[in-house]
Sequence to fold (257 residues):
Amino acid sequence: MLTQEALFYNAMNATAAFDLTSRDEILTVMPMFHVGGMNIHTTPALHAGATVTIHRQFDPARALQEIEQRRITLLLAVPPAARALISHPDWEKTDISSLRCVGTGATAVPPDIMRPWFERDVSMTQIYGLTETCPIAIVVPLEETERKLGSVGKPVLYCQARVIGENMNGMRTGERGEIVLRGPNLLTEYWMNPEATKEAFIDGWFRTGDVGHVDEEGYSTLMTGSRTSSSWDRPVYTPPIWSAYLPSATESWKRLW
Fold:
């Protein structure tokens, strides 16, 4: 269960992470039954007074046209959608210079999806989070997106993150462990499931079930394909699997919407 307080702090996290203001033009192409489509840009935009354009279905040609015509500044595109945009025949001729940032995530994003945006002077940042975190928890700062390619970033303003071992001991730089999170943006409970809620938290920290490590600059890297014993049914796919899956996924993605 996510409270209105959690939504408020998520909006604060988005504002800080994306420099969100009332001048922004946001294009929402992800379905809003998903926490990403609803809460990464869309509801934070309401708090900031930004403009949001919502597409009922994802269509790469229409999305590119919207970016150019409405001078979109912020966009969220999971890997299949991002692949569809950079592979579209209109990609090269579309003016995307208004974009300040394209957010992506849901897995470790293959570099070949991110580089075409960098080559056109658009920041593409990885966002790490879960439904339970509303979802923004860890983000690569906009000015570091290309230099820290492969990282999921640093904790956002109102969320703490640690990498722990089996006994809740903090891991040293570069050591693998479970990513745990704490902050006012997190869930309060699993609806009518106290046992799952109790299992999910340890000493006030939410156990994500994801394995990662932190580098000497404080940036987190997710070890894709790795899950701890506390994980539920949230798959994490390695980049090679995504690379094979993405071409066919694009059409399925469009049909789903």
